[in-house]
Amino acid sequence: MIEINLLPPDLRKQEIVKHFKTPVIIYFVTMTALAFHLMFFVLNVYKKAQLSSLDNAWEKAQPQFKEIEVLKNSLAIKREKAKVMEQILGRNIYFTEFFDKINKAIPKGLWLNRLSFSYDGLVIGGSVFSFGTEEVSLVNKFFNELKNDEFFISNFNNFNLDSVQRRVIKEYEVLDFLLTAEIKKERFEVEYSDQRKR
Questions:
Q1: Are residue 113 and residue 72 in the same domain, yes or no?
Q2: Residue 197 placed within a domain
Q3: Do residues 98 and 113 share a domain?
Q4: What is the percentage of the chain residues whose pLDDT exceeds 90?
Q5: Engineered SS bond to 128: which of 27, 70, 105, 135, CB 3.0-4.6 Å?
Q6: Is residue 193 scored above 50 in pLDDT?
Q7: Which residues contact 123 (CB under 8 A, 6 or more apart)?
């Protein structure tokens, strides 16, 4: 079928322009859409890479977080112990009486080289020159004096003679001993035990 265009030339030009405008618009819209898709794709890849990097950093930081948690727990326990010691020192344990009782309990021939008093308890270390079996009886006498003293009974329990060892200093034989006792915490740590139950 043959079509004959009877329109004047001016109208024919406009029709040709109009005819070619539609594909240009479609091309422009298509390219714009592709550009947006490409931009979103690149942005998505970048965000995924960033998220992966953050995940890796988080995994690497986990051991440090655990270390910090352990340190925090350790510090909390030490603070609680310090608080209990403040309570102990604020109660009726007078150190003059404490030292006086120990001094009076020391038999002749025995001397002390270690004395510590803390939340963990009482530790007394000492030595006796060896004179056959006499040094063992001196250690036992000192141990029993403290163990049966009313002051020590009211403030300590679980008295133990943890270590008794012989050693030689030059020509002399010496008997070393270590005496330990636990603080009666029920006298001092009412607040401490209440905090731990929470």
A1: no
A2: no
A3: yes
A4: 8
A5: 135
A6: no
A7: 114, 115, 116, 117, 178, 179, 180
* Residue 63 confidence (pLDDT) above 50: yes
Query: Side chain identity at 14, as an amino acid letter?
Result: Q
**Other CB atoms within 10 Å distance of the CB of residue 125:** 16
- Give the count of beta carbons closer than 10 Å to the beta carbon of residue 91: 11
Q: What is the CATH number of the domain that holds 167?
A: 3.30.1360.100
Question: In the prediction, which pLDDT does 157 show?
Answer: 86
| 85 token code pair | 């010691």
SS3 90: helix
- Tokens 């133990």 sit on residue: 160
Cross-strand pairs, 161: 179
Give the global pTM.
Answer: 0.48
Q: Which domain holds residue 30?
A: 8-90
Note whether 160 and 178 are within 8 A (CB).
no
From the number of C-beta atoms within 10 Å of its C-beta (0-12, 13-18, 19+), residue 128 rates as buried
- Please give the span between the terminal C-alpha atoms of the chain, in angstroms, as a whole number: 98
Sheet holding 110-118, edge to edge: 110-118, 121-129, 172-183, 156-169
Structure tokens at 48: 């995924």
